[in-house]
Amino acid sequence: MTPFGRPIGGSRSAQADGHAARGQRAEQLAGDFLKCRGLKIIERNYRCRMGEIDLVARERNTLVFVEVRLRTARAGHDFGGAAASITPAKQARIVAAAQHYLAGRRELPACRFDVLLFDALDPGSVQWIQGAFTA
């Protein structure tokens, strides 16, 4: 154990594993939600050194970079919900990752940045903000 009560060896805690599983479930719900609305999911969890994009989708001729946020309400831990967690710094990382994704393409499609917010792991709790921010 480290002085902070964490196991030595880099193993994840059960709480961290549960958080990751909830995040993956939210991304799956988001992908299903977008597919039902006519978007085609092209890529999931695109990672580069600049950041990560949860979902890359296509809506007709537009490439859509999607950030998925899940914020569950816990007593005494309300920090403004899912929307408040997408700070200007986070937006900048998403834009940089999108630019990396687009690098080397001969033709650049129209692009937009959408956010899907979940306040619970419930398909009925999704809020879709199209064009949530710009590059």
Summarize it:
The protein has 135 residues and is an alpha+beta fold.
Model description:
With 135 residues, the protein is α+β, with helices and mostly antiparallel strands. The protein has helices at residues 14-36, 88-102; strands spanning 40-48, 51-59, 62-70, 110-118, 126-133. It has a five-stranded mixed β-sheet. The termini are far apart.
What is the number of strand segments? 5
- As laid out across the biggest beta sheet, the strand order is 1-2-3-4-5
Number of helices: 2
Structural class: alpha+beta
What Rg do the Cα atoms give? 16 Å
Secondary structure: helix percent:
25-40%
Mean pLDDT reading: 84
Oligomer: single chain
Low confidence ranges: none
Proportion of residues in β-strands: 25-35%
SSE blueprint and pairings:
Blueprint: H1 14-36, E1 40-48, E2 51-59, E3 62-70, H2 88-102, E4 110-118, E5 126-133
Parallel strand pairs: 3-4
Antiparallel strand pairs: 1-2, 2-3, 4-5
What keywords describe this structure?
135 residues, 5 strands, 5-stranded mixed β-sheet, 28% helix, alpha+beta
